[in-house]
Amino acid sequence: MSKYKEIELKNQVKYSITSRESKVNQNSFVKVKEPQRGQNMFGLNGFVNLLPDILKAQDFKELLDHTYNAYQNGKPIIVSLGGHIIKCGLAPLLIKMAELGVIKCFAGNGSISIHDYEIAINGNTSEDVGKAIDDGSFGMAKETGEGINEAIKRASKEGLGYGEGIGKALCSMNAKYKHLSLLASAYEMDIPVTIHVAVGTDIVHQHHNADGSAIGDCSLRDFRIFCQQIRELNDGGVFLNLGSAVVMPEVFLKAVTVVRNLKIPLDGFYTAVFDMIHHYRPQVNIVSRPTQRSGKGYYFIGHHEIMIPLFFQCLWERIVGC
In terms of CATH architecture, what is 72-320? Predict the structure, then answer.
């Protein structure tokens, strides 16, 4: 027998489990159904319906519902991007979503325009930085640096935005892989792609023909175009940030501020971040702060090359009635 005294438990206060509020209910569990002969067992929407109404699975279903409702009600779905989205080969899917009338505006940092441009003119992108940094060749591809910088200087003279200027240039040169270019395809569909540049972050800024005044002029114009698009999110629109951890969360928060400062209604919209790890800025600047009065924000973590096709394919199936 221990020499230490134990607490006496016989006077504990207990309750019935039937009266307790619980976070998990059997009605939220996975619904397993036997497939009928000759039927597709699930399909992607069947798969989503199979998911339990718990945690991120419930969030995923909710976001699909909000995005589908936005499409049905003519509210904008705006997508911002980090460069990794283009490098993962997802542009064709985003282009298809734009063709279907799902996505009304794209936005991104400078890297998406670089990877998109290289794919359009040469069918490949993403050099081996580890090798190239040693000999100083990183980012010094002639066609990329000189081509984009000249396009931006022309765009500035013509009063175009950064993304619009590159899209126009790719269409004008009839780039060999133009059909894989988000910027060129969006330009042809009259869908804005706004590019928000941080000077010194992009390889094209290393080149002799980089013009700071043209870069700033076109990128600032894109910010104002972006603000005009953001104002339309009011009452049911959806903003999706795919893989931008710093630039687009900052740009989005400032755009929301501009719209609300002008006393333009901007509430009741939905936001979501898809990224491979959890970041501070996307959480507070996209998910939490802009929707704290109304609407809702979501955060999903997973590989871009899996999560983004999964989401948009589910949405596509729902739209066409699969």
Answer: 3-Layer(aba) Sandwich (3.40)
